[in-house]
Specification:
By secondary structure, the protein is mostly helical. It has 10 helices and no strands. 74% of the residues lie in helices and 0% in strands.
């Protein structure tokens, strides 16, 4: 019985946390980071202020959670690095995961919040880079290094290669959304963009370009 109650309380706490993060994201986007109070977030999330303060004592800690959870929210539980062995297959896996991740509305909202608040709150940009983009980027870099070490790819500069690969996908999936509110490519269009990025990488880096 005690175990069931404990599990129930954990589920309830998780639902409240999700409500808080969702409400904060919407309010930060609508009113700005500086113009949104924790009390207003608690009201929008339909939780008590004490509940919010218990989970997030400061706005900075709440924004940190938004960044971390946004970048970990991919279809395979946040695992962005396949096993080395087949460069084409691995790049396709990474590419589709990345497109799904940066194509979600929450990611667009996160970037808009950071860009809007950057002049007054540069720490938000550093947080987004350090906790979100950089860990994801590093996982792709390490995958390319593993393929290079296994002899499946010629990638002497995995940092540049990871940057180029992710950049090709983001340039189609994410960045137009920052300026065009009606930008919504179809799944087929997104898949095509990912495949073109994969083929470009294979032509440049595959040990066997026909892979």
């Amino acid at each position: 019985m005690a175990a069931e109650l404990s599990a129930h309380h954990r589920r309830l706490a998780q639902r409240k946390r999700e409500s808080i993060v969702s409400a904060a994201t919407e309010l930060f986007l609508e009113r700005g980071y500086d113009g949104t109070s924790l009390a207003r977030i608690a009201e929008a999330a339909a939780v008590s202020k004490s509940t919010l303060f218990k989970q997030f004592p400061t706005k900075a800690s709440l924004f940190e959670a938004i960044v971390t959870e946004s970048w970990q929210r991919d279809a395979d539980g946040g695992v962005a690095r396949p096993e080395a062995g087949d460069l084409g297959s691995g790049l396709r896996c990474i590419g589709h995961r990345y497109a799904d991740l940066i194509g979600q509305p929450g990611m667009t909202a996160l970037f808009r919040i950071v860009i809007a608040e950057l002049p007054r709150f540069p720490e938000l940009g550093r947080m987004q880079f350090r906790l979100g983009k950089m860990p994801y980027f590093t996982s792709v870099q390490h995958y390319l290094e593993a393929e290079h070490e296994a002899g499946n790819a010629d990638v002497p500069d995995a940092v540049s290669a990871a940057n180029q690969f992710l950049g090709m996908i983001a340039n189609y999936v994410l960045w137009p959304r920052m300026l065009l509110t009606d930008w919504s490519p179809t799944p087929a269009d997104t898949s095509y963009a990912v495949e073109q990025a994969v083929q470009t990488m294979l032509a440049r880096h595959a040990s066997d370009p026909s892979a």
